[in-house]
Amino acid sequence: MDISNPSDVTEITPSARIDTSRHGWRAKCLQRLIRMDLPVPRSHAISGDGVQAIAAGQAVPIDAFKGLFDSRDGLVGVRPSAVTPEWGGPGTVLNVGINDRIHARLAARIGPENADAIYLNFVQSYAIHIARLDPDMFAQEGKGALADALRCYCDEMDEEFPQDPYLQLAGVLRSMARAWEGPTARLLRQAKGAPADAPLGLVVQEMALAMGPGLSGSGSIQFIDSVTGTPRVTGRFRGQHHGGAVGRDAETLYLTRDQRGPSLEEVAPGIFADLVRFGVAARERLREEMQIEFVVTEGRISIIDAVRVQRSSRASVRIAVALARDGVIPEDEAVMRVEPRALTDLLHHQVDPRAPRDLITRGINASPGAATGRIVFNAATAQASASRGEPCVLVRRETVPEDIRGMHASVAVLTERGGTTSHAAVIARGLGLPCIVGASGLVIDSRRRTMQAGGRTFREGEEITIDGTSGEVLAGAATLLEPALDDAFTQLLEWADAAGGIGVRANADTPEDARTARNFSAQGIGLCRTEHMFFDADRLPAMREMIFADTPEDRRLSLERILPMQRKDFTALFEIMAGLPVTIRLFDPPLHEFLPHDREGLRELAESLDLPLSDVTRRVDALSEFNPMLGMRGVRLGITVPEIYDMQARAIFEATVEASRKGDPVVPEIMIPLVSAMREVELVKNRVDAVAAAVRNERHSSFTYRLGVMVETPRAALRAGDIAAHSAFLSFGTNDLTQMTYGLSRDDAGRFMGTYVGQGVYAEDPFHVLDRDGVGELLLTGAQRARQQSPGITISVCGEHGGNPESIGFCHEAGFDYVSCSPFRVPVARLAAAQSAI
Ligand code: PEP
Ligand code: MG
Predict the structure, then answer these.
(1) In this structure, what CATH number is given to the domain that contains residue 231?
(2) Which of 247, 306, 371, 677 satisfies CB 3.0 to 4.6 Å to 412 for a cystine?
């Protein structure tokens, strides 16, 4: 047989040149196990180039495998080896090389039924995956099935089942190489972040047979709990006793002593102790928690594979922190090992154990956390529901790769079938979605769009709660508890902070937000949206009175009623933040948002203002705008109705005096929204300065303050040089800036965003991930012009992007001082900030 390039095949020895980038993670991992002197069967690695050449039709370099089938049993297995395990790969093919001669030899050693089972298993997989014959023709099991399968193969192919092991191997390698090039495999790995042309390595390994006289069998062992991340030996061992037939005398043993049945620890304490020893060594050498796959052949252990332990987000934090605390990896590496988004999962809600639970059914608790949503039965409905902003729970018999987008759009997933490693479970854990699988009490009728459980019927659109931590499905919206944070979480974030990186503040409007921000160690408040303070029932009437005031004097009087309330708000924020910076944004929204829109509301308002309904209606109409988000809001309102900003400035300064008297000195930061021209800043600054001077005078105080500008319009970014001349800081409001740069309504874009992202018009929703190419260029231009004018100016981002890890990376690269995000995203942002810096 021809050799395409023998250098593409390398026997894995301690000194062989095996690279993860060429041969994949599995080949590299096996080499490390071999270097540790673990009993790994002889293995060969085929490089990504080699696999690609095979897929393209070049001859398989069979000569490089010479002697491979000379071992005692003469069989090999082939496993995929992508660059990282997450990228997957085609299914493993075992028992390659079996033919009539080896079958006869095996029958003598391990019994005819075992030998038949091995041969049948390979004929089936060869016929289906390599010869591409109809699987139904090879579905038979049991007595006579092998002879039938061999006959059937011969009838369909017009030739005997191949007896040459090298020919079999060539067929297997080619089919695995081509499977990797197929569209399903490509889509799946792209969803995991792999490039479309990611290479696949293959590993060809001598088989260690899990059968024979004496204790034989196969299993896997891990030393950590996949859900909690705490130390615990788990796994399984399927033993074949004394040459018993497959499926007849096979017995699954627990690994450690267990009341429910016999365990490997009791049956074979020596083997168990060796496995534990190998596990400890592998953790140190591979610097990772590993799941070890092993085979016992007549009392001898072979280590055939080791894979990174599957883990929940919570476990990923515990594992990384434990590895660093044990000195296996440096602290910085622990920080790098945790996906920032995983922290969100630790912050997950749980169903309140004290609250009533309307239990529908139970399943396997496949991914922790709890969420409530409306039932949907397919991915398309899930996406439609998400685009309407309605949380949904995807309910499926089982999920398939095509459901990934639907899972992304759901708050939780429930499946009738499957186990902890089923597709739904693995993907949900990866996404941090609460998930229950194997809820076998469910009867799903996807045509009628109903599900039945416990004698009750639920229709699409009805609300249920998924408790992924306990595995319980509950009717309706259960009471959820705020998430708990553990010691590993705190430790990881301490290490993250020590790594430096861009600062992280919180967007906090209320004392409660501010407390959460402090709990998560935010370095200050980067945005307090003051308008939220005007909607409270005790302020709305004064606000409406102010809007209806006929003269500046009347307006001032109405605002005077709001002043003490605002002062109280700001004093509370300053006190909670204890000297950390607090940035308060002056009033931003259009005034009509504070007015009623229906007739009943208008009538009530007329009554409370003691005005004729017609007057009220006329005034409300006069305030309405065609494009309110581009209308009289932000600084435009501040300049047109300056009394509002005057009142707010006074409340801020009086609160500053009050809070500074009680605690740490406060230097408030006042931020002007929606600026597009330098003159706007000058006008506001003059009035705020005047208010500051008045308060200093009245209170005999000498506080200072910083005035800054929110850069939310493209013009403000372009004119940042002028604007910086009057500003101590600039904060990019990337929500409005994205809206205005794209000309895309942030409130309406959801309707077609799915289609746009689906068709690749936008790589991502630009309101979630900062658009580096367009909006990003405005940020860079603005920052550069501002710094040219005022080198010491503080620059930040306070739009939603401030909590998005990719966008934080951009802000770090751009040299910004901090990002500000909602309080619950602060931990994610701190970790992402550290990762950009390391
Ligand atoms: C922004 O526009 O980015 C911003 C932070 O302000 P808001 O979301 O309140 O408009
Ligand atoms: Mg804005």
Answers:
(1) 3.30.470.20
(2) 371
